[in-house]
Amino acid sequence: MRCRHEGIRLRAGEGRALAAAALAALTVAGCGEGKARPNENRPPAPITITASVAPDRISVSPGRFGAGPVRLIVVNLTGAAQQVTLQSALEPGEGPGISRQTPPIDPQDTATLAADVQPGRYTVSVRGGAIERATLKVGAERPSAQNDLLQP
User: Fold this and answer.
1) Tens digit of pLDDT for each residue in 20-29?
2) Quick one: pLDDT band at residue 11, thresholds 50, 70, 90?
3) How far apart are CA 64 and CA 90, in angstroms?
4) Residue 87: inside a domain, yes or no?
5) Staple 41 to which of 75, 87, 145, 146, CB 3.0 to 4.6 Å?
6) What is the number of structural domains in the chain?
7) Residue 68 in 3-state DSSP?
8) Distance of alpha carbon 79 from its chain centroid, rounded?
9) How far is CA 127 from the centre of its chain?
10) Could you give the 3-state DSSP secondary structure of residue 18?
11) Is residue 150's pLDDT more than 70?
12) Rounded mean pLDDT of the chain?
């Protein structure tokens, strides 16, 4: 059986052999020698920290955890909108810290704030001095999520 296509004659099976040869050539071409890349571990898996803003103080749970990515979920239990700030409490000479803010949180509503925290102390506060701030203690970095399944 022969087919004609734009002046090229192929026998049955020759088309498959030609496609296999082309695929093999592309595969070999993609295997060039390059520099070895170091296999770096993934960062720790993010953890969720919860906080509530009450009329007299801010509560955060847990108050101690290891360094790495965190997601702070804040609920506003006051009667007014609040903007929450997560800020590193650095000693002089420790370099730049972090400061992250939520958008204004309406009463009885929630907001989420993400940060990658390093070891040290952090404060969670709102504007003004009427509501007592919370303090977080961040320890050594949490283990890598390298061997955890179902990670993004």
Assistant:
1) 777 777 666 5
2) low
3) 17
4) yes
5) 146
6) 2
7) strand
8) 32
9) 27
10) helix
11) no
12) 84
